[in-house]
Amino acid sequence: MREVIIIGSGxxxxxxxxxxxxxxxxxxxxxGLERGGQVTLTNDLENFPGFPEGLGGFEMYxxxxxxAARFGAELLYDVVTSVDLSGETKIVKTASETxxxxxxxxxxxxxxxxxxxxxxxxxxxxxxxxxxxxxxFFFTGKKVAVIGGGNSALDxxxxxxxxADKVTIIHRRDRLRADAILQERAEKNEKIxxxxxxxxEEVAGSDTVTHLKLRNVKTGSAGDxxxxxxxxxIGHKPNTELFAGQVNLDAGNYIDTDRRTHxxxxxxxxxxxVQDSIYRQAITAAGSGCAAALEAERxxxxxxxxxxxxx
Length: 311
Ligand code: NAP
Fold this sequence. Notes:
Low-confidence stretches: none
CATH class of the largest domain: Alpha Beta
Mean pLDDT: 95
Number of helices: 6
Radius of gyration: 21 Å
Order of helices and strands: EHEHEEEEEEHEHEHEEEEEEEH
CATH architecture of the largest domain: 3-Layer(bba) Sandwich
Distance between the termini: 26 Å
CATH superfamily of the largest domain: FAD/NAD(P)-binding domain
Bound molecules: NADP nicotinamide-adenine-dinucleotide phosphate
Strand content: 25-35%
Helix content: 10-25%
Structural class: alpha/beta
Shape: elongated
Oligomer: single chain
């Protein structure tokens, strides 16, 4: 029987690992398919305090992992296939093993949303991408579109100007949601242009993407827009499928926690993007990972009849 199993290895999960490891709880972290989570897809994190020159997302993940391992966290590169979290003993299964634990910290993050239009799935890897850091290089000297008007769209659009000749940001409204500083940078960048009030109705091509079918939502006019690639940054959906029916979810399918990271199930805590539809930053994920770890520690101490300092 383990004390703590942490599902997920992004900033939330690994911060929970650092804290529970330092409390001598020897946490087991089950990484999931994408080790390090979404932060590893970010080319340059400029707003994580303590790194004034910025830091690569993958580099950050490696530092988190090293720090967790240093204090005795066990890191398993595997995928959880099912859980039973309702009893006092929590059961967590991978394809080959069954683990038992007194507490579980859910830190499974979220996944980029898809447009859901014809051609999108067909051209994934052939012009459709959800990760500029991963695929930007393939569009050197080419023309790409970025869909969305939030921080991700502008951040990634700016990154893509390192490779592409032209980056067109296609947004469904005439005002961006992104932070002012990113808007300013994008507007000043000669390689970036905007198409406003427009939605993608189809991704089309032959072997690879050649154009998008766009519709202007104000005028209703439709037309083809020639591109070599399209990067979709329209938000995220939480990775909660494993827990549905056991852990309470909110209307957006995020895990419903109280302000102390408690779920509806005793001994089960959630942190990071899987329970945060508002802030979704590496730093807020790390902060909630810390909170979940302290709550798990407290839960274990109370069940052993020990007091827990400070609360
Ligand atoms: P977001 O802020 O939710 O923005 C999503 C964008 O996609 C919005 O502009 C939205 O349009 C548009 N959109 C949504 N569904 C669409 C659809 N079906 N078709 C076309 N457009 C659609 O998501 P995000 O940009 O991924 O950012 C998520 C969070 O991460 C935010 O809190 C953001 O601040 C944070 N983030 C921060 C940084 C940074 O600080 N540098 C970088 C990346 C992300 P509307 O505006 O019309 O709703």
